[in-house]
Specification:
Helices cover about 35% and strands about 25% of the residues. By secondary structure, it is an alpha/beta fold. The strands form 2 sheets. Strands 5-6-7-3-8-9 form a 6-stranded mixed beta sheet, with helices on both faces. It has a 3-stranded antiparallel beta sheet with strand order 2-1-4. Strand 8 (about 205-210) and strand 9 (about 210-215) form a beta hairpin. The radius of gyration is 17 Å and the shape is globular.
Length: about 220
């Protein structure tokens, strides 16, 4: 799995986002670079999802700048985002992945084999032929991860992916996230679960009311 750093680091320089009279983000400065997972922590409404959407390039800041590898307005060719509630296509699990591979430009003759590899990576080989919409919540989240990985991203954004999962589903998802990170893909994930952040993060960004309260090494953060 290729993960070239052509879109990293992603930098926020004094970024603000305002919707009408409401401040969503207030002068946020931070950077996501190669290395182990970064976890965005904070309560609902802290601005975690907004940071991910800005980093993905889905929205533009009202002030400040977001840059990818030192450049602005870079198409998200090597970025992928998995939403908290991903939408499943009316296809099998394997069909969802082959559709994503086609969209990523994978040659037709390679798609079935590549889909099988991705389903194996997320632990869904046994349900490859099942309709995606009949899978459990945890299985759907792992399938969404497989679809995101079809474009071989340099950075993978995850928006509270385990928010609605039971402990078994959460454990299976976290195992996949660790495996993905070990393959050299930068993972940036939002959560409000301190336990999950402790298990996965090597870097913490704590957000509150649209501001970065603290950012740094996860070990030092939890020790304090």
């Amino acid at each position: 799995m290729r993960a070239p750093p052509n879109e990293l680091p992603i930098r926020f320089d004094d970024v603000g986002l305002r919707v009408r009279d409401t401040v969503i983000l207030d002068r946020v400065s931070l950077a996501f670079d190669r290395g182990p997972p970064t976890v965005l922590l904070g309560p609902n409404g802290a601005g975690k999802t907004t940071v991910l959407r800005l980093a993905m390039g889905l929205i533009r800041p009202s002030s400040g700048a977001v840059t990818w590898g030192g450049r602005e307005a870079v198409p998200p060719a090597r970025r992928a985002l998995v939403f908290q509630r991903p939408v499943m296509l009316r296809r099998s699990a394997a069909g969802n992945v082959t559709f994503a591979l086609a969209a990523a430009g994978c040659p037709r003759g390679e798609r079935n084999a590549r889909a099988a590899e991705l389903l194996a990576l997320v632990g869904l080989t046994a349900v490859a032929g099942r309709p995606a919409r009949q899978l459990s919540g945890g299985e759907q989240q792992r399938l969404a991860l497989a679809r995101a990985l079809a474009k071989e991203p340099a950075v993978l954004f995850l928006d509270e992916p385990a928010a609605s999962l039971d402990p078994a589903g959460t454990k299976a998802l976290e195992d996949v996230i660790c495996d993905v990170a070990a393959r050299g893909i930068k993972v940036v994930m939002s959560t409000h679960d301190l336990g999950q952040a402790h298990r996965l993060a090597r870097e913490i960004v704590l957000l509150h009311r649209g501001r970065v309260v603290e950012a740094g090494d996860a070990g030092a953060f939890f020790s304090a």
